[in-house]
Design a protein that fits this description.
Blueprint (H helix, E strand, L loop, with lengths): L5 H5 L15 H9 L9 H5 L4 H11 L6 E5 L2 E5 L17 E7 L4 H13 L1 E4 L2 E4 L2 E5 L5 H14 L4 E4 L3 H10 L6 E5 L4 H11 L3 E4 L4 H13 L4 E4 L8 H17 L11 E2 L13 H20 L4 E4 L4 H14 L12 E5 L8 E5 L2 H13 L4 E6 L6 H7 L4 H10 L10 E4 L7 H8 L2 E4 L7 H7 L6 E5 L8 E5 L2 H13 L4 E6 L6 H6 L5 H10 L2 H4 L4 E5 L6 H8 L2 E5 L4 H6 L1
Bound molecules: iron/sulfur cluster (SF4).
The site of iron/sulfur cluster (SF4) has 15 residues, from helix 2 and helix 3.
């Protein structure tokens, strides 16, 4: 089926650009309608003007997707199931993720009911920029007692804002349950070939949508759906959910056949959301051993996962295991990601933890998975850092480095645009290992020293501990010559910039002799004997320092004052001790 274009819709709209829908034009409204972000009734002039009634009805028919959307829930807490247009996500996108409802029942004690309802309603986990949650509570009548059921439904409703599903094949229970929560517009489960007349009457009187169920008999299912929808009841279809040799495959086949008939053959009678009930695996398991219950929860999770992949718009499960919730919501998040949109996060400069002016600065891209993983790796390792997120259109490091969305100029621009230099007193930036080839170009473009980080953000803590160090040897600031001073420091990142930055800021050119002390600051390197007269002598010889400068004076920070004579003796150079805060002043003279 060809997808609608905004112009197809625009022709039905009043074309007055009145703005009552909150948009500046009717064409903008048409775009939103196509994306399922608004409904036809949101154009008030079209919905209320009797002269436009036909256009209103025709447009509603035109934009109704082959799998009609069904809403349940009330008081602003609604869930929409169905509303899909394609078989496969890559053909367009899926619009409404599979809703997951968890069962409680009316034989539970009040305390059990409240505890379980709170567990279901409050469970959440943050993953790739989204809070994953469950969607609804299914209240099942086990007692078959309408009074008891209504009481349980009311108690559940009082303890959750989540939409409710009322589950009973006994119409008198469903009726009592609906009356207990009239304003919540619950979904009724279920109308069958035996009770459909009574259930239809309850649905018509309450305005609630209904699941029609006919396990293993798709013809009856279709006929029930056609009958109920013909009198204006919104329905969802339960073709049966079963576990076992052969029947598991039949379950998946039934879901697939129904979805195919709706989308590819335009069969309106089955163009409704599909409901899977993996909770049926628990029938007869009330007294089972713990081991058997665990196995049932595992099978139920597996079956629910298969149905998320194959067209279930709503799942009713019984397991209250957190690993069930985690597995299903994570899978759902992956399946229902919009393939047209690279999952991106906002670009900018972000503080991770409580960074200060000595904290590391790291660059990554705004691909959601990358940015969140880097951030969470830093947070879990309790690393305070500044994170510069570059807008690469939501593309990850490797692909954006290859595709040109990430390059040296863009990184330099981001450092400048986000005023990173105002946050730190060093000029060290860590780039992802997968963008290593931009290191030199970025140093030239930004004036920052570039450190190439690991390819995998999980290795950042190790990198910071063992590799985030200035290179040892004879380094420099500005454009030094034979007369320029030589300043000693260790390869501790903080001490290095304590020496370099004041000179750089004062526009002084100098040589910086960086001793490899395993990253220890000068004071500790002296104590640990990593900084000695001999280490300085060896480094000076290795770097041919005497060929580069005409004088023989070495400036050392005051933390190494105790080594003055030792260095003088080993090198034959005069040693001058200068506190770092007075370095620029001293060298200027
Ligand atoms: S309310 Fe209707 S007529 Fe007014 S701008 Fe929106 S779509 Fe157009």
């Amino acid at each position: 089926m060809a997808r609608l274009k905004p112009l197809d819709i625009y022709n039905y709209l009043p074309k007055t650009n009145c703005g009552e829908c909150g948009l500046e034009s009717c064409m903008a409204f048409a775009y939103k309608l196509i994306e399922h972000e608004l409904e036809v009734k949101d154009c008030k002039p079209l919905a209320t003007d009797p002269k436009l009634k036909k256009a209103f009805e025709d447009l509603k028919e035109l934009v109704t997707p082959p799998v009609r959307p069904v809403k349940f829930g009330g008081d602003g807490n609604e869930v929409t199931i169905g509303g899909e247009e394609v078989m496969y996500r890559h053909e367009l996108t899926y619009f409404n993720p599979t809703a997951i409802a968890v069962c409680v029942h009316d034989e539970m004690t009040e305390e059990e009911l409240i505890r379980n309802v709170k567990l279901i309603s409050e469970w959440t986990v943050f993953r790739v920029g989204a809070h994953l949650c469950l969607d609804a509570v299914a209240v099942k009548s086990v007692s078959r007692d309408p009074v008891k059921f209504a009481k349980a439904v009311k108690l559940v409703a009082d303890n959750t804002k989540y939409p409710l599903i009322l589950c009973s094949l006994d119409p008198s229970c469903l009726k009592a349950g609906v009356e207990a929560v009239k304003n919540r517009r619950p979904l009724l489960y279920a109308a069958t070939r035996d009770n459909w007349r009574e259930v239809a009457e309850i649905a018509l009187n309450s305005g609630c949508p209904v699941v029609v169920a006919s396990p293993g008999d798709l013809d009856t299912l279709k006929s029930l759906a056609a009958t109920l929808s013909s009198v204006g009841i919104q329905v969802a279809l339960d073709p049966g959910t079963a576990w076992g040799e052969g029947v598991l495959a039949d379950t998946i086949d039934s879901f697939t056949m129904l979805r195919r008939a709706a989308i590819e053959r335009g069969d309106k009678n089955v163009g409704w959301p599909l409901v899977g009930v993996p909770a049926t695996l628990w029938i007869g398991k009330e007294e089972a051993s713990e081991g058997e219950k665990l196995e049932t929860a595992f099978k139920e999770t597996f079956l629910a996962a298969a149905l998320i992949c194959r067209y279930a718009d709503l799942l009713i499960i019984n397991s209250k295991e957190l690993w069930t919730f985690l597995a299903l919501t994570t899978l759902r998040q992956n399946i229902y990601t919009d393939p047209r949109i690279h999952p991106a996060v906002e670009a900018g400069l972000f503080a991770v933890g409580s960074p200060n002016e000595d904290s590391p600065v790291m660059i990554t891209t705004n691909y959601a998975s990358t940015a969140f993983v880097v951030r969470s790796d830093l947070e879990q390792s309790k690393i305070d850092a500044w994170l510069v997120i570059i807008d690469t259109g939501g593309i990850g490091v490797e692909s954006s480095a290859a595709g040109g969305q990430l390059n040296a100029a863009k990184m330099a621009e981001a450092l400048s645009e986000y005023k990173v230099a105002e946050k730190v007193r060093h000029r060290a930036v860590i780039i992802p290992g997968l963008a290593a080839r931009f290191a030199g170009e970025l140093e030239d473009a930004s004036g920052w020293d570039v450190y190439v980080g690991p390819k995998d953000s999980g290795s950042i803590p190790d990198f910071l501990k063992s590799k985030y160090r200035p290179r040892d040897g004879l380094r420099y600031v500005g454009d030094p010559d034979g007369k320029s001073s030589v300043v000693l420091v260790t390869n501790n990142i903080k001490d290095f910039y304590r020496v370099k930055m004041p000179l750089r800021n004062a526009g002084i050119s100098a040589w910086i002799l960086v001793v490899d002390a395993d990253g220890l600051p000068v004071s500790e390197a002296v104590k640990e004997k990593k900084l000695t007269g001999e280490t300085v002598k060896a480094l000076m010889q290795r770097e041919d320092v005497e060929k580069k400068v005409d004088h023989r004076e070495l400036v050392v920070p005051e933390e190494a004052a105790t080594l003055k004579e030792e260095i003088e003796k080993a090198t034959g150079w005069k040693v001058t001790v200068v506190p770092c805060e007075k370095l620029a002043e001293k060298l200027k003279k």
